[in-house]
Design a protein that fits this description.
alpha/beta; three-stranded parallel beta sheet; about 30% helix; globular
Length: about 100
């Protein structure tokens, strides 16, 4: 398992939740949201940790997208989303992409 040092303490990085933010809730963004919610148990098993959608963003908050995004924090602009989440990306974080046919 991967380990990282956080404030002088080694932590098993795979035990942490994988937090995801989605910028844009059009066809692709809403589809990704639906898949991540629907397949959360399978993805947790494959990834070795829980995957959580922590924040979303789109131009119009009131538009019906056919998906309930109330579990995620709404940010008013993609720039706000980037400012909040991009600083946490570093050489120790990995982008995890899982595909299933």
């Amino acid at each position: 398992m991967l380990e990282r040092k956080d404030r002088g303490v080694y932590i098993n990085a795979m035990s942490e939740k994988l937090k995801i933010a989605i910028a844009g809730l059009g066809t692709v963004g809403a589809g990704v949201f639906k898949i991540l919610k629907k397949k959360s148990a399978q993805l947790k098993k494959k990834a070795g940790r829980e995957i959580v959608i922590t924040a979303v963003n789109a131009r119009d908050r009131s538009k019906d997208r056919g998906v309930d995004v109330s579990s995620a924090r709404w940010l008013d602009s993609a720039l706000d989303l980037a400012k909040r989440f991009m600083p946490y990306l570093g050489d120790r974080k990995r982008l995890l992409v899982l595909f299933e046919e």
